[in-house]
What does this fold into?
Amino acid sequence: MRVIVDQDRCCGAGQCVLAVPSVFDQDERTGIVVLLTEIPPADLESDVRATVDLCPGQAIRTEGSPKAPDLGGATP
Amino acid sequence: MTDEAIAYPFARTCPFDPEPIVAELRETRPVSRVTLSDRKPAWLVTRYDDVRGVCTHPAFSSDTTNPGYPEVFAGRSKPEEKEKSLISMDPPRHDEIRRMLISSFTVKRAEAMRPRIQELVDNLIDAMLARGGHADLQSDFSLPIPTAVICWLLGVPAEDHLFFQERSATRLAVAAGSDDVKTATEELMAYLDALVDRKAAEPGDDLISRLYADFVVPGLLDRHDLVDLARQLLIAGHESTASMISLGVLVLLEHPDQLAELQADPSLVPGAVEELLRFLTIAQLLVGRVATADVQVGGELIRAGEGVRALLNSANRDKRAFDDPDTFNIHRNARHHVAFGFGIHQCLGQPYARVEMQVALETLFRRLPSLRLTVPLEEVAFKYGSAVHGAHSVPVTW
It folds into this structure.
């Protein structure tokens, strides 16, 4: 899954940082969203997907890797 | 289904729950016609998805000077009496100004203040203990916390904190006459005006000093607008958080099993705070918008120029968004609540509000585990008619 943020739409509410601080941050000088990683680890995908809906500015979207069925035995 | 218009706002009668008519409308007429107190018609939107839609659709304007804007309080309907504020501004100016502020309101900045907030909360509890076995939780505990935080942010000296608390309370009290509100507003503005001069001459590590240097000096923000922004932040950041602390305590006291779980496991506190925000939704009269183009909301056509009130407290009790929504449950995932609003106007101060509530509730029930009301719940003086729900006083012992 790839995360895309639209800094022009960001209103700095911080919902994404609160939800997944290892993926989203806020620029210290502007407060606007900064991506720490474009490709979040698999175990954070559902949390990242939730931020799409939580973001009040609708500034986050995700691409690819639609929720895969859990096949078990996946290697870390 | 009738087209008979209902009078809005409703009279709140229960300390924690929205008026029964809210749930009825949400199920039977989710986008309904109402008549406001100035006799103007408006649409009332009550379902979660529709409320979020109104908050995010670019055709809905927050401009209170638009003749179609649906005012809740009849007394504030004259354009010249309306206060310009960030929440009544539209893009692009809204976004320009909000962006000047954001860096002081990040999650990290709020977290960095946590130790200072913890010390403040401990000092307030020490003072309550020193004075004896009784306190008014609202004035001795809940109000001083957000007052201190917003004053720290703005750079208001500690000795002036009480001054702000009193004037902000007057401005929010429904019982206050318009002259009282006017006087309180003028006194606040005069103080902040002088404070801006002090910060211009002797800058500190605070929001007013930063905004002055970065935006007023290069001509991107009028000095007058800075004073007004400071006023808005003081008022927005202050009584609402205090109400959430007081009402949060009362809700937890009404749910002793969940309170015991919180006391045993503080890692549950952040989730409990989100659930309190959802359950109480104290900004009970928000949101107002006016359509600038024809828009469909929940199957109804809202025409350009018509006013809409979108109820956050109703959205947060919508079973389409939350299972068993009228039950208070600290274990639910309530993160998608709209207690802070939604869209570009969502509460700027929410990271501070969260830290304040988390520290206040965790510390209070840890240090005063037998805290309880000294009167029955129904005798507590709730602010039923006010824009932000809360309690005038909360007598407690421990």
